[in-house]
What does this fold into?
Amino acid sequence: MASIPATITSIGDVYMMSERELNHYFVDLHVHIGRDSAGNPVKVSGARDLTFANIAREAATRKGIDIVAVVDCASTGVLRDIEDLLKSGEMEEVPGGGLRYLNRTTVIPGAEVESACPGANAGAHYLSFFPNLAALRQYSHNLSRYVSNMDLSTQRARLSPVELARLAADHGGLFIVAHAFTPHKSLYGTCARRLSDVFGEAARKLVDGIELGLSADTGMADRVGELSNYTFTSNSDAHSLPKIGREYNILRMKAPSFSEVRLALARLDGRRVVANYGLDPRLGKYHLSACRCCGHRFKAWPDTHVCPECGCTGIVRGVADRIHEIADTPEPVHPPHRPPYRYQVPLEFVPGLGPARIGALVDAFGTEMAVLHRAAESEIAAVAGEAIAHRICLAREGRLEIQAGGGGQYGKANKE
Ligand SMILES: [Zn+2]
Ligand SMILES: [Zn+2]
It folds into this structure.
């Protein structure tokens, strides 16, 4: 499949493009919370140590992420945690919106909420982001009228997607379609062939951005004509601390704040997304279609409705096949504003690299971003050995051989 050339050069190149007033920031707009600080579950599938405070610390100290948006903040326990962090002075609200931590990372509070597809029982996920605690608290209070359990996140709201988008806007929020193509809980994956089928004529006014999801990239999404007007985001959807920043965006802005993110998504006043960094979509969990009975992964488009291995008809439709189904053009048509999509292979996907050596590399170079993009092969080799250093460099060049994922299983990079 054709896509924008995705050779990683180095983050340094991106910085060189910056102009005097505007800088480039690493931004990850989708991180979950596992527990609140009292140990109560928030996102049940999230890790225990994935608390609001730990996310801010990990993003600031190990990942090197400038802005991280946390999407489970409208939950009761998390609201309390944020209040405590602000009271203790560990975090402070910044004038343009967002909560500043260690003077290094801005945390934007948000909420992932499920809403039913029009006329169907299936639902899709949407992300809303807010400038400050007051707006978030008010949003949470109003949302609680439509959600049964506000202790947990990503709950189904008794609101249509349009009503949900309006609720975010009424509280000064931003609204993004989450993991837009995945076979579970997504607008194109489970709800509709068109954004306008869900949001009507006013779609562009209600939706501030589209999240591509781990199994898709710009080359795939730009085959859907109606998306040419939208800004794409690539975010980690992290359910554990190590996964923060496995996908991210570089935003050109004046400062790392909520209001600047709004301008960048709207592509106003020189602010914009200058690059999306993400997994090679083949590494994503839902790239290929997969059999529910035997797990076999395959291309189901245009006309495979049974598993070619076992004949089972239960198929989890992959993102690649779904995009073939709904595409307007066989090749992507990129609008002039579309930034490049660059592949990166997070350290945990590099074959032979376990937690201990990842830790040693992060300690040696400061952050995972520095290891992935800046450290020289010889420097990496001195810490983790030549084989690993070579693989990290192959990954930078998009030359690692990959077995595509599907049906909930990640793809895999091969050793050689
Ligand atoms: Zn989701
Ligand atoms: Zn099968």
Notes: Confidence is low (pLDDT under 50) at residues 1-18.
